[in-house]
Each structure stands twice: as C-alpha cells, then as structure tokens.
Amino acid sequence: MADHYELPHFGGKLMSAQVSALLMKEIKQGIFANSEKLPSEVELAERLGVSRTVIRDALSDIEREGFIERVRGIGTVICRDIVNLTNRFDLKLEYNELIENSGYRPHSDSIRLRLEYADEKTAELLCVDEGSRLIVCEKRVLAGQTPCIYSIDYLPYELFGKVDYTDLDWSQPVFDLLDKYCGLIITTSISKVSATNADEFIRSKLNVQPKQALILLDEVGYCKLSRPVMRSLEFYTDFFDFTMLRKKF
Amino acid sequence: MADHYELPHFGGKLMSAQVSALLMKEIKQGIFANSEKLPSEVELAERLGVSRTVIRDALSDIEREGFIERVRGIGTVICRDIVNLTNRFDLKLEYNELIENSGYRPHSDSIRLRLEYADEKTAELLCVDEGSRLIVCEKRVLAGQTPCIYSIDYLPYELFGKVDYTDLDWSQPVFDLLDKYCGLIITTSISKVSATNADEFIRSKLNVQPKQALILLDEVGYCKLSRPVMRSLEFYTDFFDFTMLRKKF
DNA sequence: AAGTGGTCTAGACCACTTC
DNA sequence: AAGTGGTCTAGACCACTTG
C-alpha cells in the first residue's frame, strides 16, 4: 500500500463525499484493486488527515451500495464480486446510462407523441385528477443498431407550464427534458417488474424471436420530497443483464 | 404529537437500532402515521434522551431503505408511498417471507433431490472446482393452494460436512437448512432478472396460461464476508407484485 | 433571524477477533 | 493484550429554507 494519499481540497466542503469517491476509485482500479481489505478506520483517518467520523461516513456510503462489508474485530472487507458488476439495475434509474455503461451509443426512434386523459390508476399514481391531461411519449430505444427497449412515458401536462411540449425534442432522454424545462430531477422510482410476451406491435419493433419473452417495468419516478412526476412502461429485451443487489441490513 | 416517547432499555446496547425500530413503528402505525414530517433531530434527541448522533444514525438506516428523506432547512420528510408498499423485493431475500407477507401460507411439493457435478459457470459463481459435487434441490412452491414459484437450488456438497443431506427435510426453506445444519446465514444476493416462457414441465407445474410469461431469477446467495454458498434458479408466475425501489444516492 | 439537516472534531468506551 | 469496527457524547460551524 502507498505511504500517502492525495486528498483534493475543495474548501473543506463535503469531505466525506470526497473521501468515499476517492476510496471507490482506489478500490476499483487504484491501490486497493488487489486488496481484500481496506486499512483500518484509524489509519485512513490519519493518512487522509480527517477525523474518524469522516471516514466512517464515507465507508457507510460505500457499504450501503454493497461494495464493502465492515466486520467488528476484522476490518473492512471488499466485496469483489459486487465491485466487479458492470450494470447495477438497482442503482441506475435511466436506461441511457445502462446502455452507455455497456459500451453502446443509446438513441431512439419511432417516436409517437400525444395527449391523453389520465385513467384512474395513472391518476392515482401521479397524484393528479382522473381525466386530467397527460403527455404520452412512446419510443423505441436502441443500443447502437440493436433495438432493446420500447418505452411509454406518461407526464402531467401541467409540469411544462408555458413551454409547448410539441416543440421539444422527445428523442432525448425524458429525464433530461424534465431537468431542463421543468427543473425536476428524478431521484427515486418505484418499479414493478413483470414478464410479458407483449403485443405484436411492440414485438415487431423490438425484433424479438417468437419464443422470447420481455421484461416489463411499470415505474413511477419521484423527485425530491416524494413528488411523483412520471409513469413509464418499459419493455426490455434480453439485450441487457438485469443485475440487482438484494440485501438485508 | 405525544409529549413523551418510551424508549426501552437493553443495557445501553445498540441504541440507534432501537431508535430506528421505534421510529419506524411510529411512522407505520403510531403517532407519525398521519404526519408528513418527523420532528427535528434536536427535538427527537431531547425527547428520547440520547445524543443527536444516535438519532442521525437511526435516521440514516431508515433513509437507506427509502422510507424518509432528509432535506436541509426543511426537515425529515416521510415518503408515504414507499412506507405503504407491502412487499419489497429488494429488501427480502426469501420467497417464503414474501408469501407470508402477502397473507398466504407457503409450502412446497414435487421435491426432486439429487447430486450433480458443477458445470463451469456454476463452479465459478460458487467458487468451487468445476466437476465438484453439488446438491441440487428442485421444488414447486405454493402460496396456499396456488403454485407460484418453481425453484432449483445448487449447493456445494461439502457445506454439509458429516450431515447426510438425504436425511434433511428439503420441503423446508433452504435458508433454514443452511442456517441450522451449516451455520450459514445468507445476507446478500446478486440476482439476474430475465423473462422466459420456460419449458413445458415447469409451465405445467405452475399451471400457467399459454400466453403468460415467467420471471426468472438467477441468484447467487452470499454469507458474511462475501462467501457464495448457493445458486438458485427461480421461476415466478405473476402471483406476486415484484416491487422494488431504485434510488440514486 | 431562526430553525433545519449536513458536516466535522476530539475523545471515550464497548464488542469482537486474533494472537 | 492488541487491534478492529460499533456506539455514544458534547460541542461547533456550515448550508439551506422559511418567515
């Protein structure tokens, strides 16, 4: 192990976040890439010149995502199998990120944009009145040349205020449009996973073989303060590994 | 809100865990059941007679599972939509728990027990030699009278030491057998989710309709210290809601 | 200005594992 | 006995939201 760590200075702000980013980098491809354990909390605190609390906060963040495990009397163990996972479905909310992480260029086509009136279920999920206007955006998403997702997004019309939604470029990720034009950032989603063979239209768009089933995600995306802003139905082919971590705390 | 909280004494141990359990109880069905927010950290600390650190540790645990959100300058907001979810697939590792939470009695039948020799992939996942012996247990799982899961478990033969695996009651949850006879508790699993139509044998066991697809979970269960102990293939019908939380931290 | 959560310090003791 | 992570205290200051 190296004798000294470099800790960038940002005016003393967010120190534990910097520490956890630094440690993750070293775990993935740095000086701890071949280690089974991290140095002790006291040692890390001394080397980085911060208090043990800062180290513990940083380690807690890393532990929450499953990359390390802390054992009393033993130390901080690196969970190499989990560090090595490339795409964690439970940590990424946006399929474009998943596609990019897999080494492909994400883009979309076959866009169909329309207004609909909220049915009972969607209205309840999005906390809007039944019958209120929804922007509906259907599209096909491709990784490079391979179609891999068909998605249908439902957004309350009122979110966009004075912006004319028909002027926007809906081939962009909806997350980006929400951010840019509504100032809304989706941080959480409740996802219901099921399996389906889907209808002929969607199957043909995705070029799936006769025997191949699809994963259907019925999601509601939330911003800060538990505010629901979007419902999505997403049909996934088997192009991706849908890997997730399940953990008892 | 009440003027006083009761905090049980257990010799001063694990105080933050007690606090988080207490708070979760009050959020779900107690004095915060109709609240949008929790009292401030300082107030909670005073009322419970502990330091603010203890409160913050407790709140961190609750936040990690998605039930609250902490916002600077505002307070600790309760995510009611998430509290109200009955079955969280990302927090439970064991289908028997999910079945019980849904209000059904879990049991299994059609048990087929055998020895196999590890293929390359399973050997790698379980960190055993290719060709080494595996106990394989196939069974059908029912919720009450309804078949809902077909599962195939692969366990290294060596785990059971001198215990003759054919003497055990494999209709019990495998988690319980591992605990009782091997002293192993599975705390984490890496799950690969896919959709499948499965073969005729499994479809007939699960009584699925011709058009119905199944969810397939390919899981590796880990004990403490990242030790892999079991691989499972589990075929799920649509009997359950497979709800999970996806979150950016 | 007041109140909230977020961060950080310095120090203490406990529980567990290993030697 | 020594070293590890887990818990807890008391106090301080910062960043953000609200009035």
TrEMBL record, chains A, B:
Residues 13-81 form the HTH gntR-type domain. It comes from the Bacteria. PANTHER family: GNTR-FAMILY TRANSCRIPTIONAL REGULATOR (PTHR44846:SF17), MANNOSYL-D-GLYCERATE TRANSPORT/METABOLISM SYSTEM REPRESSOR MNGR-RELATED (PTHR44846). SUPFAM superfamilies: Chorismate lyase-like, Winged helix' DNA-binding domain. One of its GO terms (molecular function) is DNA binding. One of its GO terms (biological process) is negative regulation of DNA-templated transcription. This is GntR family transcriptional regulator. The keyword Lyase does not apply. Keywords: DNA-binding, Transcription, Transcription regulation.
